Amino acid sequence: MGDNLARKILKEHLVEGELVPGREIAIRIDQTLLQDATGTMAMLEFMATGIPRVKVGLATQYVDHNLLQTDNKNADDHAFLASAAQKFGVHLSKPGNGVSHQVHLERFGVPGTTLLGADSHTPTAAGMGQLAIGAGGLDVALAMAGYPFHLTCPKIWGVKLTGQLQPWVSGKDVILEMLRRHTVKGGVGKIIEYYGPGVATLSVTDRATIGNMGAELGATTTVFPSDENTRAFLKAQGRGELWRELGPDPDAGYDEYDEIDLSQVVPLIACPSSPDNVVPVSEIEGLKVDQVIVGSSVNSSFRDLMTVCRILEGRRIAPGLAFHINPGSRQVLENVVAHGGFMMLLLAGGQVHQPGCLGCIGMGQAPGTNQVSLRTFPRNFPGRSGTKEDRVYLCSPETAAAAGVYGVVTDPRKLSELLPWPEVKNPDSYLVDDSGIQVPPKDGGPVEIVTGPNIVPFPEFPALPDQLDVEVIIKVGDNISTDTIMPAGNKVLPFRSNIPAISKFVFEQADPEFAVRAAEKGDGAVVGGENYGQGSSREHAALAPRYLGIRVKLAKSFARIHRSNLINFGILPLVFKDPADYDRIRQGDRITIPGVRELTLNGATEIPIRVNGAEIVTLLHASERERRELVAGGLLNSVKEENHG
To answer: I need a labelling partner for 595 at 20 to 30 A (CA). Which of 176, 254, 316, 485 fits?
Structure first.
């Protein structure tokens, strides 16, 4: 049996371990990606290693999240990132240049390479045939320092694509079909590899959309072949020399299989408030829509936006509806302008914003009370929009444009009554503008790092004690996202480089008193259900609770990136051996873990804990390396011990 593409790339980059699912491996990283919501802390972590210059092939830093400058904080942090990028050898994409994932696809992605990004939607680069993985900022900081990236070897899930998408159906509907079938937990522990004759019918940007939202399935990453479509895209970007053909062997096998006939995919929509709450658009037709937003990290490419332009050409946005467009990059916007699309949007009554994440991360564009918002975004977790009890639906640009025309949720195939299907394709040659990218000097020696008052040094954490005696500060349910643990938005994210300040917002939506209670109680524990920590890669969802004294998190299961982040900051991620034991613990209970340091260090899988005088058995699934980090009190402590030991 031959190799699939994911295994080929993993083999080429493997530096430790064997490619056996479930075992720990380490891979060499070729490129890294930071954005400003995660990168400020990651840059501080990189500085804490004491390494004078990045040791990775290409390091990139994007300013795309915290674009609102309502006071000094974001502007100060952007100055810090710009100077640090110059000092340490990092390419910087300036504010307004675009969303990290779209810009990276356009200007930096290389087929067959590895990309590690401090953003869960890093797998957008799957559209380029790149093996791109989202991780916590500390993992990315260490990759920048030249360390390999450790992960549990995933299964490879082969999804065969046949047929071709029908008019008015696009890549967003394909990934929504995957979420409809498999839920937000369906991809945990897996790399999704798309193969088969249907792949050739999908553009690079449609593939990027599918890769981006593989994160919502919980997948380690997604990968597509590098084929003639990839070559054409790179050539159109003036980077054709970087292309190489990559694909699975003809007799390749996979650990799991699925198949999608693209011709049978219909327009789909994810209803509030989870990306897997998916139904056909036709099922909820007629629902009044108050707001539509096209763009962000997904569906913000030229093809996506120009499709919307063509649908709106010569028409007006429906009365009482706000229609926003967030281009993925300056390049996308310039090419839309060159093809006449900008005037189509303006004359239709659309509101065109600067390229950036904006409403997707709660930076403006929040809907009003009880308003229905249709978004081409990747996530609709409760309150993520900035409005409590929001009603956010996720859909394709075609479905979004149809709502813009009719004012209600409408199957976009009905647009054929008004106009022919636009069938927009990506340009044969893009207008390329790299004026928004700051290239670092060859030697950053004389560069002075600009540090504003909101930049607070990385906190120091003590090692794991011999015994833990902690109180359960909060108990939560299944599928708790990192948005619930550590909210985003314009009020919270400006404190991303100030852990004492941002820690005050931990669990603010679920329990406004959590931070005060945790700080008062000293060492504490959090209890959760299935898939705890799904969603965003933001390490602050582990780092801020650790600052508040959380030493243990017990759950039925953990999302991959959040589990790694917990270990990175010395929080024990314990899993109930018997999930029914979840019901035996309440908020306020005391948990004692005798001999925890020795058990962790000696490789014990079973960790007995005492709750209310009774014993419950929990499991610690951790490699020898991860156990050393936990005992040291976190990854940075462990690295410092190795360097000075």
So the answer is: 485
